[in-house]
Amino acid sequence: MKKAVYPGSFDPLTFGHLDIIKRAAKIFDELTVAVLDNKAKTPLFSVDERVNILKEAVKDIPNVKVESFNGLLIDYAKDKGFHTSIRGLRAITDFEYELQIAQTNAMLSKNQLDTMFLVTSVKYSYLSSSGVKEIAAFGGDISKCCPGFVADMVYEKYGIKRD
Ligand code: PNS
């Protein structure tokens, strides 16, 4: 069985992430979306909230699972038997950062964890979780950025009421 992990912060989940999830789920028999529980960062959503959001968003895709992890991705991947990590690439600006992570993971895992990049669909190439948070924090419209139930939760976090 071909399986892969799609790691990330997903704070919050965007349509760009969902696009990568749907496409990776067609390539692999089983895809695990792994939410990083990073104690060093203060996310907008707790790891449990992010896991629950993702579970709701992928509930109709049978071969996608959602989990959280902490520590190094290579350790989590080794534990779970993943040899492929999926990452989305939006633009050349992502590339340097992603290349560095991919090569670091290859080195740390002694080539046991490979990274596969899926190029983000053009219609989502402008999307980022940090952009979504900034727009929402100022009361802007994020309806084209993430599923409606996620948008409602983001506005609630910022105490923003929208009709
Ligand atoms: O959605 P993000 O924040 O761009 O995802 C980054 C992520 C979670 C893939 C990356 O930070 C990660 O794998 N962190 C776990 C710690 C780790 O393994 N670091 C070594 C690679 S540099």
Keywords:
Rossmann fold; globular; two-stranded parallel ribbon; binds 4'-phosphopantetheine; single chain; alpha/beta; 163 residues
Query: What name is given to the CATH topology?
Result: Rossmann fold
Quantity of strands, as a count: 5
Q: Tell me, rounded to a whole number, the average pLDDT.
A: 96
Overall tally of structural domains: 1
| Principal-axis shape | globular
| Overall CATH architecture | 3-Layer(aba) Sandwich
* Strand fraction: 15-25%
What is the rounded Rg? 16 Å
Relevant CATH superfamily: HUPs
Report the CATH C-level class. Alpha Beta
> Secondary-structure element sequence?
EHEHEHEHEHH
Q: Label the structural class.
A: alpha/beta
Largest sheet: 3 strands, parallel
Helix fraction, binned, reads 40-55%
Bound molecules: 4'-phosphopantetheine
Which ranges are low-confidence, i.e. pLDDT below 50, for 5 or more consecutive residues?
Answer: none
Number of helices: 6
Strand order of the largest sheet: 1-2-3
* C-alpha termini separation: 46 Å
